[in-house]
Amino acid sequence: MKSFSKSAVTLSALSGVALALSAGVASADIVFGTGNNPAIVDQNILFQNVTGNNTTSLTTDTNSNPATRVTFTSNEALTGSASAGQARIFDTAGDGFNQIGWQLQNGFGFTGNVFNINDLTATGVIISVEDQLANTGTFSSQFSLNLNGENFFNIAAINGQKITSVSLTAVGGLFQDIRQDRIGGVGPITSAVPEASTWAMMILGFMGVGFLAYRRKSEGTLRLV
Fold this sequence. Notes:
By secondary structure, this protein is mostly beta strands. The chain has 1 helix and 16 strands. Strands 1, 2, 3, 4, 5, 6, 7, 8, 10, 11, 12, 13, 14 and 15 form a 14-stranded antiparallel beta sheet that branches. A two-stranded antiparallel ribbon has the order 9-16. A hairpin with a 7-residue loop joins strand 5 (55-61) and strand 6 (69-83).
């Protein structure tokens, strides 16, 4: 398993350890893993109630009640089918594609994601993830792909954060389809709550502004006397 985190200034990686994001905002961790990890997901993405079929932006449902709407985007027109009750998303032309991403509609995010890449010719994949903190940039990691078997990956957001989007970029070839895509921990995206150290700095700043205003007022009063 690989774990990555990004600060406002630098990107650091430590093996097996999730790193906190930049100071000044609540911490967030994104953990990348290989393999099928059903413990972090509870909704299957289905191919039903589809809008935008055969376009570069296709929206479908999950099996939750009420259903969660999920939008897939690509640089090629997308379509899909049901595969063991779950969505199989592929390019309309059927000759492979090199980029795809997904996100939830209506201001929702998720904390867990599991998916399977059915490969065509690509030797690897770059997985990029954005979380709810808009100023933290994008987390990404590159993995090798198996041309002759399943390529399950899992992503988890911890420390109270939510994933807002996931995108895949093929390395050295093309994907055939994305299947068994599942999400978990769905909920509304909210603004991050500042940490205690951030509140302390804000309070000190307000006190400083207040002191300067008081001093200027006092100096003005002395000049009038």
